[in-house]
Each structure stands twice: as structure tokens, then as C-alpha cells.
Specification:
Elements lengths: L1 H10 L4 H9 L6 H6 L7 E4 L7 H4 L7 E6 L2 H4 L4 E6 L5 H16 L3 E5 L5 H9 L5 E4 L13 E4 L8 H11 L3 E6 L7 H10 L3 E3 L11 H6 L3 E2 L3 H7 L1
Parallel strand pairs: 3-4, 3-7, 4-5, 5-6, 7-8, 8-9
Antiparallel strand pairs: 1-2, 2-6
């Protein structure tokens, strides 16, 4: 069955509805195609029926049928160590400093960082973590052209093309992490749907507060809506 799921995931480029329809209608696959399907990829893969597939992801809406990966898959298994961050492409200096302190304290506790390319700020944030820690999981749109990763873990729902990359990244950021920390987010940010999903699917959503004179950011509003205020890393670690 693993090879069947891999075949349809490659054929439909990770598009959940089409893969489900193919399985439901028992779309035919030749024996030759099935036997050779693993030769079409240059990475490892994990299907939804594999015991190592994360339970919290399996229980989410439209979980990926296949996760392609390169690197240390054991980083994905320990759910209680995974943290993610959400941020704008420009953040206040004070919040940047707060983020750096959080990262250093989470490293001391041997936490795993869940990373994605959200915007221009991702380059700085991802590099800061990847250069000093091997405990990270990087979510990518596709994985075929990504170099093998001996330090952390790289995962994707698409191999060489991903028809639902935005939905994939959104889903994984809030379902794979024990806690999601919002560094800074604008009121009309495209990241708001990720945060709203986090409020409903992941009870551990933390937000750095901002001064009352900062009008164009949604941090304080999110705290009013139920997100947890965070002033130091201990606020997160104690809660969990």
C-alpha cells in the first residue's frame, strides 16, 4: 500500500482531493509502474499508514498521504519537543532580540525548531537556527532538488511539484509543533489564517506583546482572542 500512496502522490503532486479520489475509485496502476515507483525519487518517504507518521498530523484536516524527507526522521517523532515561529518580513528590533533569546533558551532545553520560508525574514531566522543547531525541521515546497541534509530534517508534501504548497505549509506549522510562538504579525497579514488555525487546532499558541502605541500589529488582539502572552521562554516551557 505504501507504493500505491507514493504513486498517486507523485502523479497528482500532493493534491489531496485527487489522491483521495484515485484511492476511492480504485484507479488502476500497472504492476510495472508500481514496482518501479520508488526508483523515481531521490529521497526517503513516509506514508500516512506508517507507524512513524505523526499522530497529531494524521488527525488534522486533510493530512498528507505522503511526506517526502531527507535527514533525521527521528526529529519528527518527538512531538513534545517541536516549536515553530510566525513573523512578518520586518519586525521591531526589540522583538528580534526577544526572538534570539527564545532561540538560545530553547536550544538549552534541546528543543526542535520547525522552520518554513514564510517571507523575507525567513532567511535570517532559518540561518540563525540552522547555523547553531542540528535540531530543526525545514518545511519545503518540493524536495527533489534539495541537497541531502545530514544535520536536521527536510520534509515536503510535493516531490518535484506541489499543487497545494500554501495549505501544506500552513497545516504543518500548527499541527507538527507543540507550541507556536508569534513574534510579530500585521493586522492584515497573509499569515493570519495560519494563526487562526493554530488557535483552533493547537491550544499552545503564544504571542509576544507589543506596546499600546503599535497600531498596525495584531499581537495584542490575538492575546485578547485567546493566545497566551509570552514574556520569556519560561512562560512557554512551564506551560508545556
Amino acid at each position: 500500500m505504501d507504493k500505491v500512496l507514493l504513486y498517486f502522490s507523485l502523479k497528482y503532486h500532493g493534491e489531496w482531493d485527487k489522491i483521495y479520489e484515485a484511492l476511492d475509485k480504485k484507479e488502476k496502476i500497472s504492476q510495472q509502474e508500481l514496482e518501479s515507483v520508488e526508483q523515481r525519487i531521490n529521497c526517503d518517504y513516509l506514508t500516512i499508514i506508517n507507524p512513524l507518521y505523526p499522530t497529531n498530523l494524521k488527525n488534522s484536516h486533510h493530512p498528507p498521504f505522503v511526506l517526502f524527507y531527507k535527514g533525521k526522521i527521528d526529529l519528527l517523532v518527538n512531538y513534545y519537543k517541536i516549536f515553530s515561529f510566525i513573523y512578518e518580513d520586518k519586525i521591531e528590533n526589540c522583538n528580534q532580540q526577544s526572538f534570539e533569546r527564545l532561540v538560545n533558551n530553547f536550544k538549552k532545553e534541546h528543543k526542535t525548531f520547525l522552520l518554513a520560508n514564510l517571507n523575507l525574514m525567513s532567511g535570517y531566522i532559518n540561518c540563525l537556527i540552522q547555523e547553531t543547531s542540528s535540531n530543526y525541521i525545514l518545511i519545503t515546497d518540493t524536495i527533489a532538488s534539495v541537497h541531502d541534509n545530514s544535520d536536521g530534517l527536510i520534509i515536503s508534501e510535493g516531490y518535484d511539484l506541489n499543487n497545494n504548497q500554501v495549505a501544506f505549509i500552513t497545516r504543518l506549522l500548527v499541527t507538527l509543533a507543540t507550541a507556536t510562538v508569534v513574534i510579530e504579525v500585521a493586522k492584515k497579514s497573509p499569515l493570519i489564517p495560519i494563526i487562526e488555525q493554530g488557535l483552533t487546532e493547537n491550544g499552545s499558541l503564544f504571542v509576544l506583546p507589543l506596546g499600546i502605541d503599535v497600531k498596525n500589529r495584531a499581537n495584542n488582539t490575538l492575546i485578547k482572542l485567546g493566545a497566551k502572552l509570552i514574556e520569556s521562554s519560561s512562560d512557554v516551557l512551564k506551560d508545556l
